[in-house]
Amino acid sequence: MSLIKCTQMNSRILLNMCKYDSPRFLTREYSYKTIKRPDPRTLKMPTPESAPNLIEIIKEKIRLNGPITVAEYMHIVTTNPTEGYYMKKEVIGEAGDFITSPEISQLFGEILGIWFYAETQKMCEAKPLQIVELGPGKATLLIDMLRVLNKIGYTSHDLSIHLVEISSTMQSIQANRLCVSHRPVEIDMPHNHEGETLSGIKVYWYNDLKKVPQNFSWYVAHEFFDVLPIHKFEKTEKGWRELLIDIDDTGKLLYRLSGNETQAVKMLIRPPLDSGDRTELEISARSLGVARQLAKRVDEYGGLALIADYGHEGEKGDTFRAFQKHQIVDPLETPGKSDLTADVDFSQLRIAASKNPGEENYALVVGPVKQKDFLEQCQGELRLQVLIDAAKKDEDKEKIKSAYEMLVDPNKMGERFKFMAFYPSTMASILAKYPPLGFSNLKP
Question: What class of enzyme is it (predicted)?
Fold first, then answer.
């Protein structure tokens, strides 16, 4: 239709409308209605009895939208508000599905506290100080670190605690162990819970690292990155393809390779990650983002970041698995009842966090080093002897010794677990003169 005809038609419509005196002909028959928005504070989660089964949620999503990525699957399984793995039960310890180093020996957390303090002395006094832990578990690591700081002379005026935790169940466990009092806060606050320790130290909980105040901080990420969602890729004759999760004719979950390049293939597989003769890759976009956040915070506002996790330096390609009652099980069986995890690729964290010449500065990255080497360089054996000497019973002495051996034994946790640290880029000359504790055989 020409512009002239369209204009003439609009003019006739306006003239016809003006023939009527009553305004009711100018009122739209269908219009928007004003509604009252519900108050978020009054909304409640469905009860476990009324919530849909997690496996049915996953299957329905696949039926509606097609196969899902492993990253989507991990996200649903771990964070579903009512049925997610970390949302509904205590999972750490002998009675849970796995056990962590802080739960094995108090020595682990004490050494980390000493490491942070010693390395901070190379730059400043570190008062006031924020301790930020990502995925604090049962808060055992933090409790052991605070014991060290109390001995050194830190008080409630010198530090505050900031915990990044998405699970209300784990948050409750942490609050009950750390605080003498704690409470939820208004929804418009950056944190969603707060409390105080017996000595008056303020404790705050967040659901995202981005909400934590940007101040001088010690950042701790122990067994945090291994549970972040990963994308899995395989190299075929047609190039890289993504491993997806689908359902078969019987309703059972299974893996399926994508026929074409997915968006994740286009966005994530870039040099040098796809270099060499690798035929399998696991990449966690979330891990890369968190690593960069930590590096930028350390570089811009000061502090240190320490990552401790089991992982590798790019030599592995298929590490996705599940743990239930300390045993490896099929990740696609009984979702929500087992711990989904993948080894951390420390080479990818280094790429995401490192300071690159000619580009925006992030941080100086050291490591990874094996847990055995880190603990021994931090005088773990000396601390072990102090604990043994303080024990009154031979049985207790043996338990302390056995726990330490589990941490450093190459066939147990000594080599599988590794440490990596982020320093401000301005500390290059200082670290050249005073090598990083625990990483003394490496250069930043």
Answer: transferase
